[in-house]
Write the structure tokens for this entry.
Amino acid sequence: MCTIAEGVENWKNLMNEFRSSEYRNWLEKAETRYNQSVHPSWFAANALHPKFLGNNLTASEWTKAISFVEVEFPDAKSDFVNFIGGDNVCLKTAFENFSLSNQPKIKNFMRAQSICGNLPYSLLKMSDVLFALVPSSSGLERLFSTMGFICDSKRNRLNPEKHQKLAFCYKMLKENI
């Protein structure tokens, strides 16, 4: 599963492929969809991600990221501006050299960098929120599908708590847990 920070990179890579291939006519549609689906929070996450550090963001996207941080994380704005304006080669190098048996989750890496003093605590709190978001609604759509299966014409008078419990039981039975 990718994060919203990776989502920005994936969109940009896709549009670059369209620019340099026989599918140029799809570029306009992809750019329109990109502008509809990508939120300024995605740009802020991309700027914080140690692999990307916002390297592919446009000036307009940087402005949107800073405005987003100013509104949603006002206590982190100055740290965010210092972070994006500073030399983060150390953080990027640490990320590239940081490995376990499996690639660590980005939030664990950010927490380790905060403990080491490479990342202010306000940015750690912000990264915890931003790196938990995924650029897909498929999980929510599956939940609504399950709830639609449970709440039918025969079971339409159950209270919401009972629906929630039935959905949980259905999900556990379906996954054989």
Observations:
- Residues 4-19 form the longest helix (16 residues).
